[in-house]
């Protein structure tokens, strides 16, 4: 792509994001203006029509005003949905990286990536142990004070609550990794990690108050819910990386491209009690997520799957205030076309059984072509990924994950 075209697209997208944030901040004022316009229409007819009576309001003027209000309110709802994510969590690569500049950030071809590795690929060769902390996570004071505002910030997202694993601490010795965990909930994470940059009274935000930088609080001192998530990059047999076009009503990354699987580790898939889980429970949860999101059985198509074999990294994701994430990579024996076939069958089942998936469309790109766009570096400024002559906005958090993956796997 010509540099001038990319620069223009980048500038246009920045202007669009700025307008979205402006509309989000002043949405109620715009609603009020619309009401005044509707009233002005009524007053106009009442003052300048000599034969006008107030009964005439039930004729054309009233109809026009009501129609105008309905259309305007519908437009406001669309704008609110589009702007919601931007108002909750900053998507600015540069500003987030600069904020935590004293942390050992991942670098990709000179670009700072807002990720801090906790455990590297070689660490997963060690023995793992999990230690349960019976003290469940409690929301911090600032969240309780502004609970209503934080809840309202997610008004256009479909959310449902469930128990999740909170990572309290991770320690590593020469031959062993220990993860201390406790119980949290999805709503706790929505109100902390995924409300980082919600504007609160007195120009406050959770990030400004709890994680202002330049250092990130260690997990054992963090005020956030910090549930354990997993990002999985699936590369097909014909060397394509699978992306999902995310839905408009998920909690984060609406309408953007996301990597193959992005999910939380869910206790509902554990075989053991929450207080006694092992690595096999984590693996089982991940397998279920692959099945839920892509419609393929890991036991059938990824027989050698394991946490030790397929994990590339465990890292803190700085967009969401340091939330810990596993990064895994899977080489699939299926082509992209075959994956898409299984996915569409899965969607048909999803409609009949009312299951929840992150997106309704799979998109594939050659791993070599993807790496070339990352190597070019412009994608970190525009967050636009070119696939078959079309441009797709990619989730900045997932773009950071891709940079981490290709930084570790330099040779394809």
Quick gist of this model?
The chain contains 15 helices and 15 strands. With 412 residues, it is an alpha+beta fold. The chain crosses the membrane at residues 21-45, 57-76.
Report on this model:
With 412 residues, the protein is an alpha+beta fold. It has two domains: 3-86, no CATH class; 89-408, Nucleoside Triphosphate Pyrophosphohydrolase (Alpha-Beta Complex), CATH 3.90.79. Helices cover 42% and strands 22% of the residues. The protein has helices spanning 3-25, 27-48, 60-88, 93-99, 141-145, 147-152, 186-190, 206-210, 279-294, 298-301, 307-310, 336-353, 367-376, 379-382, 396-408, and strands spanning 106-108, 111-113, 115-119, 127-132, 163-172, 176-185, 229-235, 240-246, 257-259, 261-264, 311-317, 323-331, 359-366, 384-387, 390-393. The strands form five sheets. The chain has a five-stranded mixed sheet, with helices on both faces. Strands 4-6-5 form a three-stranded mixed sheet. β14 (384-387) and β15 form a beta hairpin. α1 (3-25) packs across α3 (60-88) and α2 (27-48) packs antiparallel against α3 (60-88). The radius of gyration is 24 Å and the shape is globular. The two termini are 23 Å apart. Mean pLDDT is 85; it is low at 1-10. The chain crosses the membrane at residues 21-45, 57-76. Keywords: Membrane, Transmembrane, Transmembrane helix.
């Amino acid at each position: 792509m010509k540099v001038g075209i990319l620069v223009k697209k980048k500038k246009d997208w920045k202007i669009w994001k700025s307008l979205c944030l402006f509309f989000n901040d002043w949405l109620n004022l715009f609603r009020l203006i619309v009401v005044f316009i509707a009233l002005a229409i009524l007053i106009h007819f009442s003052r300048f029509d000599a034969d006008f009576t107030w009964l005439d309001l039930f004729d054309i003027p009233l109809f026009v005003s009501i129609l105008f209000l309905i259309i305007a309110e519908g437009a406001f709802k669309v704008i609110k949905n589009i702007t919601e994510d931007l108002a909750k969590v900053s998507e600015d690569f540069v500003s987030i990286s600069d904020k935590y500049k004293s942390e050992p950030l991942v670098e990709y071809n000179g670009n700072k990536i807002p990720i801090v590795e906790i455990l590297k690929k070689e660490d997963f060769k060690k023995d793992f142990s999990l230690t349960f902390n019976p003290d469940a996570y409690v929301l911090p004071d600032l969240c309780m004070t502004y609970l209503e505002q934080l809840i309202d910030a997610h008004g256009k997202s479909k959310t449902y609550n469930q128990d999740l694993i909170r990572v309290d601490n991770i320690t590593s010795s020469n031959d062993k990794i220990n993860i201390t965990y406790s119980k949290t909930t999805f709503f706790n994470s929505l109100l902390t990690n995924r409300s980082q940059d919600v504007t609160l009274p007195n120009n406050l935000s959770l990030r400004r108050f709890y994680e202002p930088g330049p250092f990130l609080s260690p997990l054992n001192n963090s005020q956030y819910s910090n549930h354990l998530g997993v990002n999985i990059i699936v590369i097909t047999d014909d060397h394509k990386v699978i992306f999902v076009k995310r839905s408009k009503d998920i909690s984060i990354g609406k309408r953007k491209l996301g990597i193959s699987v992005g999910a939380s580790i869910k206790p509902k898939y554990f075989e053991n009690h929450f207080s006694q889980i092992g690595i096999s429970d984590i693996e089982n949860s991940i397998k279920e997520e692959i099945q839920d999101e892509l419609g393929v059985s890991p036991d059938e198509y990824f027989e050698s799957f394991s946490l030790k074999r397929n994990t590339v990294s465990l890292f803190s994701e700085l967009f969401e205030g340091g939330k810990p994430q596993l990064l895994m990579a899977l080489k699939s024996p299926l082509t992209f076309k075959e994956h898409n076939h299984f996915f569409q069958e899965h969607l048909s089942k999803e409609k009949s059984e009312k299951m929840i998936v992150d997106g309704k469309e799979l998109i594939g790109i050659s791993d070599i072509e993807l790496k070339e766009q990352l190597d070019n570096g412009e994608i970190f400024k525009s967050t636009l990924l070119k696939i078959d002559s079309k441009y797709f906005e990619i989730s900045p958090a997932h773009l950071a994950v891709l940079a981490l993956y290709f930084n570790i796997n330099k040779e394809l």
